[in-house]
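Students often ask why inverse folding is considered easier than folding. One informal answer: many sequences map to the same fold, so there is more than one right answer. In these notes we will look at a single instance of the problem. The structure comes first.
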């Protein structure tokens, strides 16, 4: 039996060398950056005639500035050239930079180290686009969520470990030489791993690279806006980095002022938050069922706001001096830790499907440049996050818990706007909740549905939940043909309109709706979409498959496309079926139903007919109802 766990990828050459490369890079970036900040704060006492506070902020700016200046060029390079070669050149540059940095750390050349911090940011800016653009080429579509989950987990764990190791190494007797050796060794490890990354061919080998940072950055943003849903997903990812930067920036003062904690509390809060994001990222693979599941994204945003608000109301009224052990053992402090862990977990659930969605929905020829645009927006949002923190905490005089509360409310507003603009998020959320609460759905042979091109699905009709079950199981968006009366209901109708379902009614009663339905079906198939019909024309009243009506023949006569027969088992007897009386009018026979959705082999349009498809659906369903 095939192993579907994403951890299987860590044993395969097509992923493991890349994972080690990106982990070592993120680890090294954060070790070097944080070590330099600690050296400046505690050893140098300020540089360039500036105070240490100003120098710390200057360092943050120097690291993030290259993302604005060079991401556009980095995206072009990643699209223009073979990606494993690009990664190796980037890692070679890291070895050179960190080799010089090692000398600077050994001898205390702090001014030189600041220049190298800028170059480290340049190297990271070039690695970002190729880092995410290579994944869809190295992984199968069913592995994309798991691969992204591992990358996000690895990135945040590397950030945590790098930050912690900087603090540990600073306590060494010869901190400069110790850190110097560490950054040099990590750079070499990254380069060695990069040599093992398999080839990933250039997506746009004829692309002309233009070294015009500002103009190309503007052009890059235009490319990102080509697909409205992808662009809003990019904005949502950048919003997450906005929130994450806001939380991480405030942890030191939050721990000191509102928890009366020592430096171990700051470390613990950082560890809890980071571990939460890593755990949430890994959980995406199981919750999504090995596919890109946008329904998880609203769960992430709801959790981010709920636990952010809960954090505000769980702050201790009279804090006492604390260390890391008290945070874990004291009930009031422990609740704060739980809230931060949950914020991290739901952050991971929020961000991983979005990254995978952007990768999947972006054309390969522009994928790296779109991801480069994403990196620019991430950097911009993090800068705005810092400015908002200064404004709220300084000018408006909010406390840090109050600032976290404002962020949680803002998150709800941002989420509502995104989900209103992209109904797929809300639609998939409802489908995901139903298919993971009321029902336990087992899929059989759904890979028989073509991954591209028009296809007609035909299925038996058992309950009002049939369409939602199928929509939650099939990876491609499905246009359902449904009774027009459902569209007249305020709740169900609005929901299925969001799903772009096609209303139909009897030709004798509503001829205009009947004709319009077949026109819409033909338009959707002509556009290469998946259309699903229930040829019985009504819900079964006895649990058996009724006679298929000739509508399927009319559809295929106008637009010959492959037909995939499907069958549902286990929905007869549910609250939404006519078992025991009209649906919704009787007590269900069972809850938490285990149901099955089966797909047969595709039937060519020339061999398909209502009668033949009816027999195939009956054979798939078998004796089970």
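Output (designed amino acids):
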């Amino acid at each position: 039996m095939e192993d579907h766990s994403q951890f299987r990828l860590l044993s395969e050459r097509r992923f493991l060398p890349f994972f080690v490369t990106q982990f070592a890079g993120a680890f090294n970036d954060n070790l070097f950056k944080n070590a330099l900040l600690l050296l400046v704060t505690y050893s140098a006492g300020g540089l360039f005639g500036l105070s240490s506070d100003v120098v710390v902020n200057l360092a943050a700016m120097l690291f993030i500035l290259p993302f604005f200046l060079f991401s556009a060029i980095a995206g072009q390079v990643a699209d223009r050239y073979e990606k494993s070669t690009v990664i190796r050149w980037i890692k070679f540059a890291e070895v050179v930079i960190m080799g010089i940095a090692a000398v600077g750390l050994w001898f205390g050349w702090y001014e030189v180290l600041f220049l190298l911090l800028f170059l480290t940011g340049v190297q990271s800016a070039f690695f970002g686009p190729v880092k995410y653009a290579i994944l869809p080429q190295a992984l199968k579509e069913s592995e994309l969520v798991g691969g992204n989950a591992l990358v996000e987990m690895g990135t945040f764990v590397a950030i945590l470990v790098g930050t912690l190791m900087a603090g540990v190494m600073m306590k060494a007797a010869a901190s400069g030489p110790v850190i110097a050796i560490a950054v040099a060794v990590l750079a070499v490890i990254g380069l060695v791993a990069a040599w093992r990354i398999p080839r990933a061919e250039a997506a746009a080998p004829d692309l002309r690279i233009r070294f015009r940072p500002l103009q190309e950055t503007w052009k890059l943003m235009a490319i990102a806006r080509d697909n409205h849903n992808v662009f809003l997903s990019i904005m949502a990812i950048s919003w997450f980095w906005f929130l994450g930067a806001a939380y991480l920036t405030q942890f030191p003062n939050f721990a000191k002022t509102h928890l009366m904690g020592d430096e171990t509390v700051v470390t613990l809060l950082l560890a809890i938050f980071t571990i939460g994001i890593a755990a949430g990222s890994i959980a995406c693979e199981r919750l999504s069922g090995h596919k890109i599941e946008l329904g998880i994204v609203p769960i992430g945003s709801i959790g981010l706001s709920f636990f952010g608000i809960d954090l505000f109301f769980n702050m201790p009224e009279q804090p006492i001096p604390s260390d890391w052990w008290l945070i874990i053992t004291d009930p009031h402090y422990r609740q704060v830790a739980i809230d931060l862990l949950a914020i991290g977990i739901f952050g991971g659930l929020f961000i991983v499907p979005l990254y995978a969605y952007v990768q999947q929905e972006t054309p390969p020829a522009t994928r790296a440049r779109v991801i480069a645009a994403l990196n620019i927006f991430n950097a911009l949002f993090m800068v705005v996050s810092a400015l908002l923190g200064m404004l709220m905490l300084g000018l408006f005089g909010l406390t840090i818990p109050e600032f976290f509360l404002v962020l949680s409310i803002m998150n709800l507003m941002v989420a509502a706007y995104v989900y209103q603009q992209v109904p797929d998020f809300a639609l998939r959320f409802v489908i995901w909740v139903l298919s993971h609460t009321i029902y336990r759905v087992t899929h059989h042979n759904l890979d028989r549905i073509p991954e591209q091109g028009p296809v007609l699905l035909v299925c038996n009709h058992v309950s009002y939940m049939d369409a939602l079950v199928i929509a939650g199981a099939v990876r491609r968006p499905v246009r359902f043909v449904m009774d027009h009366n459902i569209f007249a209901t305020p709740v169900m109708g609005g929901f299925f309109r969001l799903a772009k379902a096609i209303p139909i009614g009897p030709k004798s009663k509503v001829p205009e709706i009947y004709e319009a339905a077949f026109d819409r079906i033909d338009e959707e198939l002509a556009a290469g979409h998946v259309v699903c019909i229930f040829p019985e024309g009504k819900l079964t009243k006895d649990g058996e498959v009724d006679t298929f009506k000739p509508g399927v023949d009319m559809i295929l006569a106008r637009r010959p496309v492959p037909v995939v027969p499907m069958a549902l088992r286990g929905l007869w007897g549910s609250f939404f079926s006519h078992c025991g009386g009209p649906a919704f009018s009787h007590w269900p026979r069972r809850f938490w139903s285990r149901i099955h959705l089966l797909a047969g082999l595709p039937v060519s349009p020339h061999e398909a007919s209502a009668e033949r498809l009816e027999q195939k659906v009956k054979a798939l369903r078998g004796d089970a109802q």
